[in-house]
Amino acid sequence: MSNLPQPRKLNNGREIPELGLGFWMTPESKSSDIAYNALKVGYRHFDSAQWYMNEKGVAKGILRWLKEDPKNNKRKDVFLTTKIKEPNQGYENTKRSLKESLEKIKGLGYFDLVLIHSPQTNKATRLETWKALQEAVEEGTVKSIGVSNYAVVHIQEILKWEGMTIKPVINQVEINPWLTRQEIVNFCHNNDIEVEAYSPLTRGKKLNDPTIVKIAKKYGKEPAQILIRWSLQKGFIVLPKTTHTERLQSNIDVFDFTISDEDIASMTHDDEYQVFCSWDPTTYRG
Q: What residues does substrate bind to (predicted)?
């Protein structure tokens, strides 16, 4: 068993590390050091967004690592994501804002993945955004494209659209043992779309849950590691985040054990719907 995240194959043949580092609410001033230190302990997957205002900082940390050892540290081994925020959606806006995002990561050359951040616009705008992203893949500035916070109805818009030439590779949504989103997960997996779980640590709200604490003690792990491992064993690509350098190591130390099926079942609450983020755009219909 490898002690580092393994690659997961996407529906376009490209690969993505199964565990990444989220950068939501990470200040630009801290993001460079966090990205650099994360690379030093084994992370190769970074999740930024236009809304986060830290694309430049994350890129700066990656560039520092690349320049440190050009012989061994290669751009192709790092997976970088950004997301198109709602005000930047639509065909022309997406093309313009993506150009601005690419300028912020100058030196890295391309994004490995670009997602539509949420469906909170309208059908015409969402499909125009998808058209612009497809063109970015054709131009080579983006390698893969997908969506975030999309419900089944929103994904179907793309899949049924006559203008679709590239299928989404990923849907990134908030998922944890109290928010399992079975309908979305089943639909994505049935359509060969990977599911990425953000806020897998429930924003810290469930780290003292008695069942989680008990299972953590059983495996000699921390509650956060148990929650991350749950996502991995459920088949999700998982995106824990931290602004504390010392926690980078523990969040990636989840590949030397396996939680039993019985314990996974005792952690999983399919009948609950606990959203720990301040929004749930999957419920948006417009």
A: 117
Residues annotated in a binding site: 117
Distance CA 243, CA 34 (A): 7
Give the 3-state secondary structure of residue 39: helix
Beta strands in the chain (DSSP E): 7-9, 15-17, 21-22, 45-47, 79-84, 111-116, 142-148, 170-174, 194-198, 237-239
Per domain, the residue ranges of the chain are: 7-274
Structural element, H or E, at residue 62: helix 55-68
Second CATH level (architecture) for the domain 7-274: Alpha-Beta Barrel (3.20)
Beta bridge partners of 114: 82, 145
Q: Which residues are catalytic?
A: 52
Closest CA to 219 of 253, 246, 244: 253
pLDDT tens digits along 77-88: 999 999 999 999
What pTM was computed for the model?
0.97
